[in-house]
Amino acid sequence: MFNYSKRLFYPIHVEREDPAFAKLLIEHYSGIDGELSSALQYFHQRSFISNRHIRELLGIITAEEFGHMELISVAVSKLGGPPLTLLNAQDALREIKHIDQSFDLNKLLQMDIQAETRAIRLYKQHLELTNDVNMKKMIKFLIGREDVHKYLLKKAQRLVRESGTPEEFNELIYDYKMSLQVLK
Questions:
Q1: Is 110 a member of any domain?
Q2: For 87, phi and psi rounded to 5 degrees?
Q3: Which CATH number characterizes residue 161's domain?
Q4: Burial 95-118 (b: 16+ CB within 10 A, else e)
Q5: Is residue 7 part of a domain?
Q6: How many C-beta atoms lie closer than 10 Å to residue 181's C-beta?
Q7: 56 belongs to an annotated ligand binding site
Q8: 64 is in an annotated binding site
């Protein structure tokens, strides 16, 4: 299901080291609204969702979230940040107890939409805390990708509520793949 590509999802460049900003970025790596949280939540959810299209969507978003973690880890390293651990920016050990254990698909999708919204908000806050043009570009890229996830999760939620057809659910995967075309 998961594939590894040697090439990063987005090229990471920095103008100069900035350990203070690197420490802020760690929140995107292992914080409560970070990429690890999203990846674990989506990975967990897909294990019991019967709708194969939503299960596939969550699987490909999970893989992308792990790719985002890799971008953050490379950026932290290039900025001269500390070695990454599963500690958040407050040096607290990362916990997974906040991952929802509900089996209600509508509720799960709503939680996923909210998680993407919080991630976007956090990226936007950190966007204002750097003058590094390259870091701003990376963060804007990540905001754009989180927006794609949010859009697709909203569409999935609407299709669940409206008892969408298999063809409509298939569009979720098509839309995701098309969102990647602009990256090539």
A1: yes
A2: -95, 145
A3: 1.20.1260.10
A4: eeeebeeeeebeebbbbbbebbeb
A5: no
A6: 7
A7: no
A8: no
Closest Cα partner for 11 from 74, 82, 60? 74
Ligand-binding site membership of 95 (annotated)? no
DSSP string, 125-161: HHHTT---HHHHHHHHHHHHHHHHHHHHHHHHHHHHH
Taking the C-alpha atoms of residue 83 and residue 74, their distance in angstroms, rounded to an integer, is 10
What domain range is 154 assigned to? 19-182
Residue 79 CB neighbour total at 10 angstroms: 23
Residue 56 domain-assigned (yes or no): yes
pLDDT in single tens digits along all 184 residues of the chain: 566 677 888 999 999 999 999 999 998 998 888 898 899 999 989 988 999 999 999 999 999 999 999 999 999 999 999 888 776 556 666 555 556 666 789 999 999 999 999 999 999 999 999 999 999 999 999 999 999 999 999 999 999 999 999 999 999 999 999 998 866 5
* Domain contains 161: yes
For residue 184, what pLDDT is reported? 54
Phi-psi region of 3 (alpha: psi -120 to 50; beta: other; left: phi over 0): beta
Number of domains in the chain: 1
The predicted pLDDT at position 121 comes to 96
126 is in an annotated binding site: no
Residue identified by tokens 């909210």 is 114
Q: Give the global pTM.
A: 0.91
Q: Answer yes or no: is 65 a known binding residue.
A: yes
